[in-house]
């Protein structure tokens, strides 16, 4: 059988399977009322009835079936260490059926959820970098700037990433951007020259990685003990860092939620992009979007407000309202505790999110359809199985690294967390239990 006949046969088989599944689904939903389930409603409001949008579920199942066929028809090109690890990881085989998700999305939050507030706050506080660590970072930046300006007088060094966006944990390495206004520079040449300067200044373990996708210098400062990566003119990352830092200043519940979610993700082994799971940056965007869509909202959508900050970076317009000191009381009408928010975050991602059709966007503060973004198909190694729009580089899906295996692991972990938070007598102990491959 040639390739085209095989593909048509596979497609017909998938469509036959789809018809069977949809017939079963029709039996499940028979007699139930329809519900539109907008993005805000799923995250923001309790629902008493078990209403279902028949059309939404039909589309969801259809896209998942046809999408899975397309993924099977185009095998991965990269076979590396992550597949060796996957042989030891038995997760991903117990994702809930659509029927069970529909049922569980209407479960009400347990009545004693606030007993978790104190232990969750304790976990958050244990993860915050101490002020002394931040002072060491400032000390290192000052020392590096003194070396850099001798060669490039107009240059400046900017911290970016988790060490500077208010979401970095203790003992993190730091990321530094050397900003040079000359647009015609050869980054690899600058990296090599800077490496010579840093080695002459007795910094340790200086490595110039000029062939990396983003050329960087890696080093360790013997005085502060901090490990550091330096890149050239990654200004978009610096602006992204500022946006997240500004959001963090509006309501304390954002950093609390983000630290807890990141700690959970790291403990459960779903915070590694090279393994096909999500980055810390992606989890922070998920937390921001979730809080934008609470009812009443806890966070505003800064990019939908009057522009007070504007910068064009590599032809990308970065503009938003950054006078966040004026927004300190924005979420005051929402009285939800951090325990309630953690419960609802995992409940949403376990049972309510429409993985087949939805894109989360903090740029709009809403759900966008995959069709509107043209993120309905795989292109090369980029998939769109869980879609998280970058707020400035809007063609960039932070979930593109998630593949057909790791999406099942992610969803199973969200479901596990939601189950523990709802039913376990001592949720914190099991929620953050480290995952160990068999």
UniProtKB/TrEMBL annotation:
Gene Ontology MF terms: metal ion binding; RNA uridylyltransferase activity
Keyword Transmembrane: no
EC id: 2.7.7.52
Domain Poly(A) RNA polymerase mitochondrial-like central palm, first and last residues per copy: 121-249
UniProt feature coiled coil, ranges: none
UniProt keyword Transferase present: yes
A single Gene Ontology CC term: cytoplasm
Catalytic activity annotation: RNA(n) + UTP = RNA(n)-3'-uridine ribonucleotide + diphosphate
Subcellular location: Cytoplasm
Alphabetical list of Pfam families matching this protein: MTPAP-like_central, PAP_assoc
Superkingdom as given in the UniProt entry: Eukaryota
The PAP-associated domain, residue ranges: 337-396
Keyword terms: Cytoplasm, Magnesium, Metal-binding, Nucleotidyltransferase, Transferase
Record-level GO BP terms: mRNA destabilization; nuclear-transcribed mRNA catabolic process; positive regulation of gene expression; RNA 3'-end processing
Cofactor: Mg(2+); Mn(2+)
Family to which this protein belongs: Belongs to the DNA polymerase type-B-like family.
PANTHER family referenced in this protein's UniProt entry, alphabetically: POLY A POLYMERASE CID PAP -RELATED, POLY(A) RNA POLYMERASE GLD2
Name by which UniProt lists this protein: RNA uridylyltransferase
Organism placement in taxonomy: Eukaryota, Viridiplantae, Streptophyta, Embryophyta, Tracheophyta
